């Protein structure tokens, strides 16, 4: 399916053209799913969030304007859905306003190809971490366990936990470079991780 330009596409979407909506879903579904996986690392939750994003977009369609950044809206909506999902599950996310604003700014400023590449590369490099380092890093930054909880769970010292986490960030920074640093730390900051 092809639309002559962005303005035509947005106008058709705003007018309730189902072909435009299907084009939107086809274009962004996988990208939004990958983004949600980076945020929460849960297949079922990611699928639910993406579905909700498209439902909200359909309900919001009459307010769309040609100059509107649809990409930024979709990713921001996905992030909001991510937060609401964890709150519904009674997990507390102590998210500071400046972190929220910074993440939205990073997402909104990128073109689709760059954002997709970044999400994919971050995910790959986390998977490429040494086994023990990856396990501890994931328990900390994705599962939201404290260093003490990880220490008890794996029967290792807190110092060892700290060393592995520091080593993981060092490897990721080296592999991903400075251009990925803000995105990596915003996504994996303890302030963005459910406790």
Automatic annotation (TrEMBL):
Domain RNA polymerase sigma factor 70 region 4 type: 125-168
InterPro entries linked to this entry: RNA_pol_sigma-70-like (IPR039425), RNA_pol_sigma-70_dom (IPR014284), RNA_pol_sigma70_r2 (IPR007627), RNA_pol_sigma70_r4_t2 (IPR013249), RNA_pol_sigma_r2 (IPR013325), RNA_pol_sigma_r3/r4-like (IPR013324), WH-like_DNA-bd_sf (IPR036388)
Family label: Belongs to the sigma-70 factor family. ECF subfamily.
Official protein name in the record: Sigma-70 family RNA polymerase sigma factor
UniProt keyword annotations, A-Z: Sigma factor, Transcription, Transcription regulation
GO BP annotations listed: DNA-templated transcription initiation
GO terms of molecular function: DNA binding; sigma factor activity
Coiled-coil region: none
SUPFAM superfamilies xref list: Sigma2 domain of RNA polymerase sigma factors, Sigma3 and sigma4 domains of RNA polymerase sigma factors
Domain RNA polymerase sigma-70 region span(s) in chain numbering: 24-91
């Amino acid at each position: 399916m092809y639309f002559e330009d962005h303005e035509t596409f947005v106008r058709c979407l705003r007018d309730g053209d189902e072909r435009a909506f299907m084009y939107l879903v086809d274009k962004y579904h996988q990208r939004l799913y990958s983004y949600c996986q980076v945020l929460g690392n849960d297949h079922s939750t990611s699928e639910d969030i993406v579905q909700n994003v498209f439902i909200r977009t359909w309900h919001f369609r009459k307010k769309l304007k040609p100059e509107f950044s649809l990409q930024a809206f979709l990713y921001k909506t996905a992030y909001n859905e991510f937060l609401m999902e964890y709150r519904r599950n009674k997990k507390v996310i102590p998210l500071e306003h400046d972190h929220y604003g910074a993440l939205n700014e990073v997402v909104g400023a990128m073109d689709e190809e760059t954002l997709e590449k970044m999400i994919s590369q971050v995910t790959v490099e986390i998977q490429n971490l040494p086994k023990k380092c990856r396990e501890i890093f994931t328990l900390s930054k994705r599962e939201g366990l404290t260093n003490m909880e990880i220490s008890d769970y794996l029967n290792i010292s807190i110092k060892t936990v700290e060393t592995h986490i520091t080593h993981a960030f060092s490897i990721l920074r080296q592999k991903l470079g400075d251009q990925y640093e803000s995105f990596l730390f915003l996504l994996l900051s303890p302030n963005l991780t459910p406790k």
